[in-house]
Amino acid sequence: MNRRFAIGVGLIVGLFAIAIPVILSVYLAWRQSFDAQRAVVSAIAADVLRRSEASTEQTLSIIKTLREANATDPCSPDNIRLMSKLDLGSDQVQAVGYVHDDHMLCSSYGKPDVPAPVGPPLYTTPYGTQSRIGVEFPDSPGLKFLLVSDVRSGYTTAIHPDLPLDVFTDDPEVSVGVFSTVSRKPVISRRAMKPEWLDYLVGDSIAAQRVDGEHLVAVKKSEKYALAADAAIPSGRVTAGLWRSAMTLVPIGLAAGGLLALVVAFLVRQQLALRSLIKLALKRNEFFLEYQPIMDLRDGRCVGAEALIRWRRADGHIVRPDLFIPEAEDAGLISEITQRVMDLVARDAAELLRLRPGLHIAINLSARDLQSDATGPLVRSLIQRMGVQPHNVMVEATERGFMQAEVAHRVMNDLHDSNIRIAIDDFGTGYSSLSYLQKFRLDYLKIDKSFVDTMGGEAATSQVAHHIIEMAKSLNLEMIAEGVETEAQLLYLRQRGVQYAQGWFFSKAVAFDDFAAFVVKLEDAARA
Description:
Helices cover 43% and strands 22% of the residues. By secondary structure, the chain is α+β, with helices and mostly antiparallel strands.
């Protein structure tokens, strides 16, 4: 009996000796993960508040400028031009207009024949503005805007409701929104939001975190405006997810089989993951280039081409760039892809560029490339390898690459000092700012296909291309229009002084040999 008792006690102690460290590790992992989730929710709320404050600041600045202009007729051509200028100079405001008697009489897009109804304001803020939520304009069905109007002057800004909420999260269960601390009503929101979350801000506090039984909630209150931002994750999902993560720490006696299964599953998952396939594609040389000709609209010459990365897997399947490029950026592989692009350009185009020194090849740089001091030497090395001149290579960068302005400024100055030309791509499609064009040394501005498609039409964005063209002229930037597909678009661009264009009207993106043949064909036609 004593032996059995001793064996039993020893067994229990042994089980506790194994279980207690495991249980403690599980709890610590759960606590650490839970705190990490709280930090994520807090960061999301802070980002939403920052964007909302930026929208408010730009709105008040625009209204102040228009009021100080003291236009006799708010809808005069001169005042509409001022609205357009203020609109283009803002990265938060979608349109600027004038509202009277609950109708928008004119805006930065012009003066419509029939004023657009915007409905009555929902509430008035302490700083003299009125807000309207979910306003839909006749020429933009399905798009609903937040309108902020100056009570005194009627000047109004339209803000897309997704803009302040466009934080870096694609989790469908994360709720985000902005509340008015005056009306306690949501100004904009994505999924379920509760006004009572504002009560978590006790006294003069500007931030709070709570678990309300259903959600893990973070609330951030603006110190400057009557706004508060909320972010929330379902608490049940958080608890379940954290517990599943913590349970990976199993007793050592059961770990061998489980660990083996996890390792196999991990390796299979990694092998199938897109980033692993990208690494494999780089080793197998599955990437190739297609070249889309760039045409001079003044004389019909082909002046060069944009090098576009393509991926054909071993089974022949083509992976779209909009799928693998973002994944490569997230995985830190985009610089390797940029290097591969340069290697392929050197292989394909060196001879043609030496024979025809008037041509150039445009290479796209990623946001990561613009944050690396190695980019300048990399491009210069490409030019030296090909035995060509700096003007034979052009680099294109999207505005997202300018976010870390100090580093990007240094990298772009380095390229410019080497006489390498720079184009800003996709201008106007994200959170563009006129300051980008003024701050950085640029040579070209590319007009995005989305604006070319609507030129001359009646859509809300139909006049954006015209404003971008005029802005580029004022800054002495040459222009390249993307996605030109019709003769009407070509005529519109040529009449307005756009120098260059690319698109299916001239040629789709083709293999290099086909591009070279295209250049020769144009030259033969010009001599005939």
